[in-house]
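Researcher: We are triaging several targets before committing to wet-lab work. For this one, the compound of interest is zinc ion. I'm pasting the protein sequence and the ligand SMILES. What I need is the predicted three-dimensional arrangement of the protein with the ligand bound, expressed as structure tokens, so it can go straight into our comparison scripts without reformatting.
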Amino acid sequence: MAAPRVPIEVDPESGVWRTDGLPMLYVPRHFFINNHLAVEQALGRDAYAPLLYDAGYRSAFTWCEREAETHGLAGFEVFHHYMRRISQRGWGLFAVQRLDEATGEATVRVKHSLFVEHALAGQGDGMAGLAQCYMFAGWFPGALAWAARPLGREPALACTEVHCAAQGAHDHCLFRVTAG
Ligand SMILES: [Zn+2]
């Protein structure tokens, strides 16, 4: 497979990175995860995970809106575009295993999640054994809800990580999006 090309523009005046017109950050993975784990430790997972879910949902929704305009895409095409793009940015490799466009329900497999890679590299003290990738849980329903809007509704969706590769029994993480 040819390496996917990711368009990146660096503004010589401001140093801001952009892809498809959207400002981006390029940071070391350990820096990002250390921030994430610091907040998890301070708030506790039960408080932190729902906050991340809502923020991720809104961000995915907004991203889809912007990308649809930029590329002239519509509906579930944008969801598939989203899966491809996040797979090119170091978060992991995202594959849609099942998608029901009538309800927005889906199953998404993730290989090489950044959290799993970090934990398996022995860099995440206390990370092994627990599902680690709950940051992604809001992303899929946010993008799916955006995609379903032209059908006349924004479905109420929920999403959980069914199993995580960091738990050791599988080589991938699995997320299930269900209609409420
Ligand atoms: Zn996982």
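Researcher: Any quick observations?
Model: The chain has a mean pLDDT of 92.
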